[in-house]
From TrEMBL:
Database matches in PANTHER family: DIHYDROLIPOYL DEHYDROGENASE, MITOCHONDRIAL (PTHR22912:SF151), DISULFIDE OXIDOREDUCTASE (PTHR22912)
Segments traversing the membrane: none
Residue ranges of every copy of the Pyridine nucleotide-disulphide oxidoreductase dimerisation domain listed in the record: 365-471
High-level lineage: Bacteria, Bacillati, Actinomycetota, Actinomycetes, Pseudonocardiales
Protein name: NAD(P)/FAD-dependent oxidoreductase
Organism the protein comes from: Actinomycetospora lemnae
Amino acid sequence: MSDLEVDVVVIGAGPVGENVAGRAHQQGLSAAIVESRLVGGECSYYACIPSKALLRPVDLYAATQRMPGVAEAVSGGVDVSAVLARRDAFAAEDDTGQADWLSGAGITLLRGHGRLAGERAVEVTHHDGTTTSVAARYVVVATGSTPARPPIDGLDTVNAWTNQEATQVKEIPASLLILGGGVVGVEMATVFRRLGARVTLVQHGDRLIPTTEPEAGRRLQAALEADGVDVRLSTSMTAVRRDGGSGDGAERSSTGGEVVATLDDGSEVRGSELLVAAGRRPATSDLGVDTVGLEPGRPLDADESTTVLGDWLYAVGDASTGAKLTHMGKYQARICGDVVVARSRGQELGGRYSHHAATAEHTAVPQVIFTDPQVAAVGYTEAGARDAGLPVRAVSYEIGSVAGGSLQADGYDGFATIVVDTDRAVIVGATFVGQDVADMVHAATIAIVGEVPLERLWHAVPSFPTMSEVWLRLLETYGL
């Protein structure tokens, strides 16, 4: 006999796991959720929420400096202590409120480490060493991901930061080395440079944010360098160490002296701390997936209905093969909740979880990088579309050349690009770069998911004078 029997047990109480449990329970299924750390997960405490709480003040201050009449009144930079205090208001490491939400929703919270123990079985090891055996009709893996650690000599000896230490920082170091030019790397370079640290960013590839349009990476690099960030492209770290014999008091970390990184050209760079932002890996290594014939440490291969095995094992979020973004994980969670409810009732899943789910998961994934300039993108890049075998044409337009852009900020620097499938005359990708472009990406997402023909988009008239007028200019540039 098991200690607990429920319809659905979810391993992982981040926003993705919470959404699965909540959606299933709201439709009549009993649900339990297992969490070894904080209810709310990585996003709430160490990623999306705290990073944006840190980025918004420095972004807003920079925007004021591009507006005559405001720039003169707003000077002196941001108050670092106030920025950190506001971050704490959003992302303090206290999950009482989220745990209370689960309780109020009627979802059982099991605190401890959950592992599969065979088909439809989960064993939870609690922090006091006791265990709970859970039997469930449906098991959902929502364990997220962990930071990747590249094989660099000495990395395990220098107390390197991950995104967790960076987003929960208590004081700004004098200098920071960042390894990695992806989203975490460029966002944290923006934060720490504008809060007073000297920043050196080392990127193995030949451009920043390599999954976006090349021009986005170029403009972001130029902006970071204009801020004073030392960007090193096509460069690798081969070894790191703590040098306790150098650096004055301001340069010395609480864990020793400066971090010294040796680069592949033989040169060295130094910083008070080292942030490793070299990607993430699915948190499936110690999950017991081998008890059901799956390989530990790999993403769980889920189909469009989030199903992994039979009708009982599901995976959502970073632990699955889907896009590694909170909003996409929550989208998968809503599907997963509906699927287990439908199966519990013996209902057919229907087309909702086939064509449109495949479009959302693979060709219409939106993302915003909250740097300055912001980078907002959805769907294919031009190169990605060509690699996928699509016949495409891409057109771009400077956002600063529309009235809304020039009014938004003096010297507005930004652009928009659409990638058009020329056979079907529909948009399959879009990118916006510039100040305050984050919310512009949703219109493109709707156009891509809805497969809206360009000739119909022509009649979606943008408001004047807003930056959305760039849509009209893009269509005109394309030839409509």
